[in-house]
Design goal:
Gyrase A, domain 2, 19 helices, transmembrane, transmembrane helix, phosphotransferase system, protein-N(PI)-phosphohistidine-sugar phosphotransferase activity, protein-phosphocysteine-N-acetylmuramate phosphotransferase system transporter activity
Length: 471
Amino acid sequence: MHYDRVGNAIMKHCGGPTNFIHVTNCMTRVRMTIADPALVDMASLKGIEGVLGVVEDDTLQVIVGPGKSSKVATVINGLLKGDKTEGKPSVSVEQKAKLARERAKKQTRTKIILKHIANVFVPILPALIAAGILMGLNNVIVNSAASWALSHAVSAVGDLTPAQVVLEQRHLLGISQFLEIISKALFGFLAIYAGVTSAREFDGNLILGGLLGAITIMPQVKELGLFPGQGGLIGVIFTVWLMCLLEKQVRRFVPDMVDVVVTPTIVLLVMAAAQLFVIMPAAGVVSDGILHGLNGLLVHGGIAAGFVLSALFPFLISLGLHHGLFPVHLEMINATGHAPLFAIQIMSNAGMVGAATAVLLLTRDPMMKKIAKGAIPTSILAVGEPTIFGVNIPAGFAFITGSIGAGFGGVMVVLLGISTNGVGAAGLSALPLISDGKYLQYILAWLVGCAAAFTLTYIVGKVRGYDKETV
């Protein structure tokens, strides 16, 4: 991809530099806050070579693929920075207010909440993926050593467990400890990171947000009848949201001369008390209820729950709402050590790959073939957005048949008892995250979802005459 060319084209078709308020990116999308959506040329935007799809939401999301989104966003931000230095007009306060009002009219309260949660976790996502993969690799090393120790009756030596004795003999103990430190540094302090990104999302003090997150994991909370992490990330996000509201109100009445001292002190005292004596206990009840409800659904709903949940996930991904489930996955890991719902979620990847492969074989459109050939390997390796937006949604029916096929992958996940001990990307990248060494079972479930989606898409495509359509 020619990143400069794509970045310039996106800026041009989005109304020029003065129409941009904010530009960022996630794994596969360039996310842009636009002042006046009427100035955006959607047809030309979708026609840019290298653009796989466009999602219109509270932010305008241009899908370009993993690894490319950050580079394109960097190009656009560089252009915007250069434009400001030249003294050209930027987005006015009135335009920002107008945009905020338009957003409020379009968004439902539920969707707004989910989008805020998604925005909290998007900045953490690369670290989550990296730490999850390293945790998975360490689990492979440790589980292999534990199995060897058990089968050969290896005994503990001093402070070393039998598994650690085997790792020491294999000269892998230091590597295992190194990987464990990295993964625990992420998952052990995730409440702090979530506090910081929540404060950024709700326009508050970032360090105060991180401090409120840190309070929840302090061992001393046991003295108040709580346990570290009670209420989970849901409680942290809610607390920081309240903190940001309080900070704005306090600042209105505190004189500027003492603002830097008085405002943070008042905000911290009030919110820490509310967090420890009200929010953590209440959020703990909510968090436990969600976890028990989902576990009950997976246990008692069986294969039907696996099918429905996997089939629905492509729709969440297409709306950009799937990141809103990260608190649930992480709470499951904190509570049980596993995230069975995430294993079901990533079956959406299999369904989208299977459907896109069928479209590749059916279509007579050379541009669609070109896009599919680039999107399918990317989705097999990591994420499903390239096949969702580049192939299946443009084909129409393939998105539906691919979602149904993903449901069969979810059925296999439930039947084979597959779970993960981390969260991250899908496809082959998820292999290190699979818990209990069920790597072959995961591959089998993925192949079943892929095959089901391919078969359904191919049959429906033939019936609809998709293979006979010409450009």
